[in-house]
Amino acid sequence: MIEANHISKTYQVVVKEPGLKGSIKAFFKPQKKAIPAVQDISLSVSKGEIVGYIGSNGSGKSTTIKMLTGVLYPDYGAVTLNGLAPQENRKAVNKQIGVLFGQKSHLDWNLPVYESFVLHAKIYDVPDAVFNERLNRLKKLLDLDDMLNQPVRNLSLGQRVRCEFAAIFIHQPAIVFLDEPTIGLDASVKETIRSFIRYMNQQHQTTFLITSHDMQDIESLCERIFIIDKGRKVYDGSLTQLKERFSQVKTISFSSEHPMLPPLDRPGIEVDVKDDYHITLHYETALWTSAQIIEQMFRDYRIEEVTMKELDIETIVKQIYEEGLHA
User: Fold this and answer.
1) At what angle do helices 187-204 and 157-168 cross, to 10 degrees?
2) Where are the domains of the chain?
3) Across-strand partners of 253?
4) Per CATH, which fold does 45-243 belong to?
5) What distance in Å separates the CA atoms of residue 122 and residue 234, rounded to the nearest whole number?
6) Sheet holding 249-255, edge to edge
7) Which of 174, 217, 271, 324 has the most CB atoms around it within 10 Å of its CB?
8) Which InterPro entries does this UniProt record tie to the protein (predicted)?
């Protein structure tokens, strides 16, 4: 559904010296500096996949999505969506995709929500009967009944985002690009949005490419992630494989009604003693397995409770950015 082959994009930025003299010089003899935003990115997404596209601020995520959707032309490389080049086939491609950029609205600020939905349906040539059927389904999934007759300006952020999601699904796109879709939302609205994405993916095989700084979005929705740093690919693969690749140290906590003294002392194991009855072990996965650690603790102590802590994706991504690891 999405094919990007070796795409690159560089911006030309005017370098200005400070002060009035610098402004005059930049006006008459501008000195430009090339800023590479995306460098040789290749990405292939199959029908029905939900892919997390991750990167720090300024890493090139939004530029990539703009090239994929036809808003920008790549300097090099080529893009196709469902077999069509988005830059040359804007109308045909737009009928197959939905795009939500953060808090940028598809809805008219002054119109009631329902009228914005009607306008959206007319733009995409959605027949009235189909529009009514889809709207009834979207109202139930996103709980929109109390909002349809209100002007968009009167809605809270959470209400407006739910309406934005409904708007981009009026024409039932095959591919949806979401750029920071849950930014600023409270936990309950985030879960509503995530459930809606899962439903559309399962029921309609909708393909999603999601960028988000909220790692819970990525972990709860995406089996595959694509990490970009400074415009270049860092990783493309499953979330499970990423955790295995970068999980060099794992953590298990033990509790007991009896003192666990002396604490376990082995090479490759760091012991964190909260008190005599609660101990946390950080162990190197190259030297130990979880089974070996648990077996050793049960052999030496009267363990009542075991808690295993998975390395979260946010920690892994932070480690990748700090250490500059590349695929």
Assistant:
1) 10
2) 45-243, 248-310
3) 280, 307
4) Rossmann fold (3.40.50)
5) 42
6) 269-275, 278-284, 249-255, 305-309
7) 217
8) AAA+_ATPase, ABC_transporter-like_ATP-bd, ABC_transporter_ATP-binding, P-loop_NTPase
pLDDT tens by residue, the chain, 327 residues: 899 999 999 998 877 777 777 777 777 777 888 889 899 999 999 999 999 998 877 888 889 999 999 989 999 999 999 989 998 998 899 999 999 876 677 888 889 999 999 999 999 999 999 999 999 999 999 999 889 999 989 998 889 989 999 999 999 999 999 988 887 788 888 899 999 999 999 999 999 999 888 888 888 899 899 988 888 888 898 887 887 777 777 889 999 988 888 777 888 888 888 888 899 988 888 888 889 999 989 988 889 999 987 666 767 777 676 665 544
73: its two tokens: 């032309």
Gyration radius of the chain's alpha carbons: 25
313-323 and 239-246 are packed helices; what angle lies between their axes, rounded to 10 degrees?
Answer: 60
Q: Select from 181, 140, 131 the least CA-distant residue to 158.
A: 181
- Is 0.85 topped by the overall pTM? no
Pick the CATH number of 248-310 from 3.30.70, 3.40.50, 2.60.40, 1.20.120: 3.30.70
**What is the distance of C-alpha 36 from the center of its chain?**
22
281 near 271, Cβ under 8 Å? yes
Query: Which residue, 54, 127, 64, is CA-closest to 99?
Result: 64
Taking alpha carbons only, the member of 239, 187, 178, 212 closest to residue 59 is 212
CB 240 within 8 A of CB 254: no
